[in-house]
Amino acid sequence: MPNYSIVRLGNEYIVQAGEKSILKISSRRKAVKLMTLAADLLDQELMQQAEQSPSISRDPPVHPDVSELP
Fold first, then answer.
1. Tens digits of per-residue pLDDT, 24-36?
2. Going by C-beta distance under 8 Å and a sequence separation of 6 or more, which residues neighbour residue 7?
3. Which residues lie within the region annotated Disordered (predicted)?
């Protein structure tokens, strides 16, 4: 995951992901709010992917039905 930063350029703020500029906005407060919302959405997506991924835990042991034994 890239590092995010906000850089002021004149009267505007540039949101950067790593070295790449991804958003230009006139208010620092709005830039921070949008970055926070985006990070939350990415976290939710990662959580959903983790929940849908195969589990590495063992299957529960299977016990034979006692009524079927001779």
1. 999 999 999 988 8
2. 13, 14, 16
3. 48-70
13-62 tens-digit pLDDT: 999 888 899 889 999 999 999 888 888 888 888 788 777 767 666 767 77
22: nearest Cα among 30, 11, 14: 14
| Cα–Cα distance, 39 to 12 (Å, whole number) | 21
Ordered alpha helix ranges (H), the chain? 28-52
- Give 70's DSSP letter: -
Q: Which residues lie across from 12 on neighbouring strands? A: 9
Listed by start position, the domains of the chain span 2-43
Our separate counts of H helices and E strands in the chain read 1, 3
Amino acid at 55: S
